[in-house]
UniProtKB/TrEMBL annotation:
Region annotated Disordered, chain positions: 342-377
CDD domains reported for this sequence: LuxR_C_like (cd06170)
Keyword ATP-binding (UniProt): yes
Domain HTH luxR-type: 381-446
Keywords in alphabetical order: ATP-binding, Nucleotide-binding
Database matches in Pfam families: AAA_16, GerE
InterPro entries: AAA_16, P-loop_NTPase, Sig_transdc_resp-reg_C-effctor, Tscrpt_reg_LuxR_C, WH-like_DNA-bd_sf
Signal peptide: none
Originating species: Nocardiopsis sediminis
Keyword Nucleotide-binding: yes
Protein name: AAA family ATPase
Amino acid sequence: MNPIERSSQADFVGDLLKKCRSGHGGAVLVTGAEGQGKTEFLNHVAAFGEEYGALTLAASCSRLERGIPLGALGQLLSWTRLPADLRDDATALIRAGRDAAQCPPVGSLEPVDVPPELLEGFQRILARLTEHTPVIVKVDDVHDIDRVSLQFLVYAMRRLHSVPLLMLLAERENAPPAPSIWSAEPLRQGHLHRLRLTPLSRAGVEQLLLRADPRLDPGLSADIHRVSGGNPLLVHALIADQHAAPGRVDGAVTVGPHYQEAVTTLLHRVEPALTRTVQGLALLPSLASATLLDRLLEVPAGTSAQALTTLHEVGLVHAGEFRHPQIRAALLADLAGQGFPPKTRTAHPGWDGAEAGLGSAPYDGGPGQDGSPGRAGAVDTACGVGALSDAERRVAELAARGHTNREISRKLFITVSTVEQHLTRAYRKLGVTDRRGLPDDLEGDELMAL
Ligand SMILES: Nc1ncnc2c1ncn2[C@@H]1O[C@H](COP(=O)(O)OP(=O)(O)O)[C@@H](O)[C@H]1O
Ligand SMILES: [Mg+2]
């Protein structure tokens, strides 16, 4: 299905695809905050290209693999339909590249020394693939690319004028403190077109709401737009919350566990260097005092402002306030397991109350974008064993059986912090304050095997 409010950007890419068919390549850098639909857009336009006969080499970069030389290039060349002789060339290329080049420290913009014959080797593979059909090279989350692969991409990018190849790259906006990988040459040479994905409008949110379920009240779209800031990830979560809470007060938007989970997802995608500061913001009585946090956390001046901007861009902060009380609650839940300095914990007089009230904060209309006061109490939150997600139930069951958080984390292959988040939500839904209050009858089949 077509992504909503992205048709002008899709048309732009469509035009580049047409040029590809006449032998001229191009490159597009799709930017936007987390959850704004970069992956969705890339997949959509690549699928469109494939319908018209292009073939796609794809890679998805990850923070954990930034230091693995040629990790991204290896993904691109692992295309299963690569002809056998090219597969051998690709394997040899990756092996030689890993022997020849190392990744510099994360954040360094020093160019990596890659032997020219290896760069040419990649060009030869691309040239063979483009002999009969245009090729799309799709790299998602390119801000996390290993620097050796980047060198290959940039080399290929400089030769696009004569190759029917379309590079589709997605980069998280505001990825700093790491400097943008494109601050060097390619942009200046005009090879790279930037497409910025902005939040959905109120009308776009309504369209998404009706597409998801025509029975939902379109009148909810104003509140959903306000709570989500138009971030499609948050909009989808809020729609799921409406489904999970039938019989709510008429006209009231339910802000529940799906939304809270989406907030946590967004938080975990923030650059690690900002995570602690983002969580620290939740401890402040008011975001207006954000700049105090730099000194309190002993982070470089400006880090808190950066964290605030990031939260603003993903749609969690508006007009200097969190868009919904559950955002603060989700950040605090995340923080609860991370050994924050005690002096910071006590900086927020509402710490205990905020923690105890996780997930139960009603939506009062939030900070009205028009400056109007929020609307009072229109939320319900699912509770009881039936309201537990599978993950929460699994964690709660092990906790009820006396396992420590660390043991649970090892058994379920999740971090201790995630265990704590699941437990916090499970306590809230079950109306208990600690593991001693958990019921015995949560058991699931798969737990028996653990
Ligand atoms: N324009 C859109 N219309 C409808 N749904 C969208 C749109 N953009 C994104 N989505 C949905 O929102 C969620 C987040 O999108 P995603 O592409 O993962 O964001 P990003 O890659 O920018 O973090 C996904 O479930 C996606 O399907
Ligand atoms: Mg993505």
